[in-house]
Design a protein that fits this description.
Radius of gyration: 24 Å
Bound molecules: ligand BES, manganese (II) ion, zinc ion
Number of strands: 20
Structural class: alpha/beta
Distance between the termini: 29 Å
Number of domains: 2
Strand content: 15-25%
Helix content: 25-40%
CATH architecture of the largest domain: 3-Layer(aba) Sandwich
CATH topology of the largest domain: Aminopeptidase
CATH superfamily of the largest domain: Zn peptidases
Number of helices: 14
Amino acid sequence: MDIKVASAGITKVETGAMVVFMFEGEKRLGRELGALNRKLGKVITASIENGEMKGRAGELNVFHSLGRMPVQRVAVAGLGKKEEFKLDKLRAAAAESCRALKQNKVTDITVLATSIADGRKFSQEDYARAITEGAMLGLYSFRKYFTKENDFKEVKKLTLLSTSEDGVAAIKKGSNKGRIIAEAVCLARDMVNEPANYLTPAAMADIAKKIAEDNKLEITVLEREDMQKLGMGALLGVSRGSVQPPKMIIVSYKGRKSNDIDLALVGKGITFDTGGISLKTAAGMEEMKADMSGGAAVLAAIGSIARLKLKINVTVVVPAVENMPDGGAIRPSDILTALTGKTIEIISTDAEGRLILCDALGYINKSKPKAIIDIATLTGACIVALGKQCSGILGNDQSLVDRIIESASEEGEAVWQLPLFEDYRDNIKSSVADIKNGGSGGGGTITAALFLSEFVGDTPWAHMDIAGTNFTDRDRKYLVKGGTGVPVRTLVNLAIKMSGGRKK
Ligand code: BES
Ligand code: MN
Ligand code: ZN
């Protein structure tokens, strides 16, 4: 999709559809909507007056211009009440209107990016960013494996319209930022949607190499022999039941002059989770191709952190492994020795995420990063606790957790903190090894996080459980059925905040 910024008189633009936003209960039309209304024979005011059009969030009314101006359709998208406005509502409205227009085969869309809200709570740049992200994310599709085009039409051209020349620079800036971030989210979605027969650990490493090459990042991929030398017994244990060799992917971005790692991002990269010998039941197992969503998110995030030239040093680590149940697989009761030397009794081979993560955490912690965040589709318990629209977060450092929650909330990516109660540590005590990988006594998300906490020492660390949020079974707002790309936007926003802006 070609994305442009233009400045022109609103009724003069040649476009398939002009999207204009409207707040709920607004009686007076703005200057632009007013001009369109006059061209349309006052059909807009009429539908407001007769109560058909209210401006509620999610509402979309499309009016055909029947040749009365070069704008073929006017699509009025509701934003809800002005007092309740958040950028995420604009992102959602842009997504839903673009998607509805695409379904009606409109391939050239213009969105009015000025005169959205005059409260000045957000900048013109913020609006442009949200519109671009919403349109790109809402129009996302994964069509690689269709052999026929069917009835599908891609939106080819998106224009953000400024009604004045001086708005153009800020809109361009915001739209560029939005495009870079949305492209990262779409890249993460592509990886998640890719099936496990194509997206093997090796394929994931190849994608990481491409990201590194495109952005001049340093990359190391540890092979099985390297991991053996380092003593990553937990990760290697998980990989034993698969014919796919494991890969440990490490990518670094240096945005400032120092060898310190300001932020280490670790992402679970289970390319398929059968459960191993503790085999999962068949129903819904296909979703386990998405068990590498954390890894996809951190790889996509570092690419866009580099493209945004943020003044921060970030390293991502992705342990990429397939969890399969062949004759060489580990079994419940086996004892593995992690990189840090800790011994782990296997209770369930389906609690494999923490086993690969503990070696990734132990590995990166040796470089003494200032903060570590791990992202993982770790526990079904998190879906029980928080549902499918909210990620869980836990950590040993409240100020880090708070910063992540703030970054997430600004992006409209819901997260909720769960407690890391020390008393629950008893639940992962083993009678034959230092710890065990399966908790007893409920609170599965907490015990999983406590397990991970054993491998980060005193380093400020937070863990995000995205088991519920990484994948969606329906189109919703700017999410499209399949991988969501959560929490790429949160991570990029956090990096923006931590870095205090762009590198010179
Ligand atoms: N990948 C799963 C968690 C998951 C479940 C993600 C559903 C997305 C949707 C993870 O590896 C797993 O199997 N966890 C077990 C842990 C248990 C055996 C302690 C779980 O949650 O059942
Ligand atoms: Mn599992
Ligand atoms: Zn898993």
